[in-house]
Amino acid sequence: MNEYNKKKDRIEIYFMKIKIKLQKFLKTKFGAYLWQIVSSLLILTVAGGIGVFAAYAQTEGSSMTYAKNYFKYFMTHSWSLMYKATDLENSKYINEDTFGEMMKHIVPSRGSDKYKFVDRGTDGTYHLIDVVYQETGSDVERTMTLRMKKMDEKSLFILDQWQVCMTDEIIQNCTITAPSNVSITFDGVSLADCEYTDNEETGERTYQIGETLPGTHSVGMRLIGSNTVTETFLWDSSRSSYRVQSTEFPLNNTTTTLCSDKAIDIVVAMYTGALTNAGCDAVKEYFSTDEEKAAVDAVYAALMSQVSKEDGSILITMTFDSYDTSVIDYVSGQSFGIKFVFNTTFSAKGSRTEMTGVREAYQATAIGEAVVRFIPRGGEWVPTSIEMNCFDYSQPAETPEQ
User: Fold this and answer.
1) CA–CA gap between residue 262 and residue 271 (Å, rounded)
2) Residue 374: which residues within 8 A CB-CB, separation 6 or more?
3) What pTM was estimated for this model as a whole?
4) pLDDT digit string (tens) for 270-305?
5) How far apart are the C-alpha atoms of 347 and 319, rounded to whole Å?
6) 156 phi, psi to nearest 5 deg
7) Best CA proximity match to 169, nearest among 142, 195, 145
8) How far apart are the first and last CA of the chain?
9) How many CB atoms lie within 10 A of CB 271?
């Protein structure tokens, strides 16, 4: 026998002796009494631990705890956490983003400092919990009914998990009808690639949204160069279609500024060409069609006949001292004009006198105006016509001496 086996045998013998002595001790009256105390403490410790854990599981895995967390997300605008607490599955118009856009129109902006949870028990499928709350500063009570559905999976193997059921409330076959020339979004999502049908008689387009959630939704509408107009509306199980109400889409500042600048350049170029006899080719560059360019030629010819009249009157020089522009005759998505009003200092010669045929030179000030019309084309507003006459540069009548 080797040395290792000798040591092993000695250890086994040592523990065997201890076991025998312990068994003898437990058979004594004192030993039996001490064992009862120790074993009772062990049982109580284990049982107590199980009870605490069971109580924890009953609380943390309850539908009420999940409902309270959901309402907390609701009050703190935590859309992502709120969405994940539901049984919703992503689709084109149902996802975290569209869910958040919808909730923005529902959640009290001021939060709530008065609320209570009412457990209504089960309806056979869901555990129903009412959240009765008042927005801070309001006496109006609102009720949110949460239908809690128990999930198949458990957390930590024993904790129940719950979801707020919303799939049964999804509205099917939803549609939105709007003018066909309007760019439109639904809850912040563009409908540019959505299926649609057009009504040629009304000029309207009906978009097939499909399924979406009940509640307050928003439609954003914008024409070329206009500000976005937003409408909100409520959809529930009794309503799944919406026709936009807006007919006016005000131009945005960027469009107004750009078109005003073009109008100013066009009018100034017309006067410059007429005074220098340079023609109007520079102006025609702003216009797209042959018909529009021909119309510019006609306006230029009329302006030339007014700058240099048959009676010998002639406008020699002018300056644009100050000016103002404004939008006129705006028809949403179709046309508008930029009216350009200016103050000018000019020099001119009057008509020939009957006696001598001499033309008198003079300087004076006057007010002139012109209108440049715009239409939408190729995704932007472009000039389509000019309306202008030369300002009145007649010699002012002399004021009689007092």
Assistant:
1) 15
2) 259, 335, 336, 337, 338, 381, 382, 383, 384
3) 0.63
4) 999 999 999 999 999 999 999 999 999 999 999 999
5) 9
6) 55, 25
7) 145
8) 151
9) 21
